[in-house]
Write a structure and sequence with these properties.
Layout lengths: L1 E5 L8 E6 L4 E8 L6 E6 L4 E7 L7 E6 L2 E8 L7 E7 L4 E7 L4 E6 L2 E7 L8 E6 L6 H21 L1
Antiparallel strand pairs: 1-2, 1-12, 2-3, 3-4, 4-5, 5-6, 6-7, 7-8, 8-9, 9-10, 10-11, 11-12
């Protein structure tokens, strides 16, 4: 499954649609402005909230939390000992860990579990400007969760880049 994401330009408070390959609006990322912490909601086309994404307030390093139906689903943070590439670790509540690595700011990275590819985020093969794709490789993967992971990782990388 391929989803097309238009790069957001202005930051928190912006809303943007994620489309399927046929151009149908599938998910809405709803950025919540005027909050103490960075917050997003991933909604389906009918406006139902599928996933809540927010910044963890009391953490030693930037951490984003993904929740579904008010229950924690995953925690995302940058791996500390990654010298050559951007690496992030997604810790699911069941103890599973997913790795995200690649050129995050260039929108060229992969999401893997135990060495197996789950999704590829890329703008390489797209002719549409300021758009990247989220290609969900496994049929049994949760596309909403993988899109939420991509949103979190890009947000954390951009925030870190602004601080440098």
């Amino acid at each position: 499954m391929r989803f097309l994401v238009r790069d957001r330009i202005l930051g928190i408070g912006d809303d943007w649609w994620i489309e399927d390959e046929q151009g149908r609006k599938v998910y809405l990322v709803d950025g919540k402005a005027m909050r103490l912490r960075d917050t997003f909601e991933l909604k389906d086309a009918q406006g139902r909230v599928l996933i809540d994404i927010h910044q963890k307030m009391l953490a030693l390093r930037d951490t984003m939390v993904i929740e579904r139906d008010g229950e924690p689903l995953a925690r995302i943070r940058r791996k500390r000992l990654s010298l050559l590439r951007n690496h992030y670790r997604v810790s699911l509540v069941d103890g599973t860990e997913v790795d995200v690595s690649g050129k995050i700011l260039d929108r060229e990275f992969a999401v893997e579990y135990d060495g197996e590819l789950l999704a590829v985020i890329s703008r390489r093969l797209l002719s549409v400007r300021d758009t990247y794709s989220v290609d969900v490789v496994r049929d049994d993967a949760d596309p909403a969760l993988l899109i939420a992971v991509a949103v979190c990782v890009i947000h954390l990388a951009e925030k870190e880049d602004e601080e440098d």
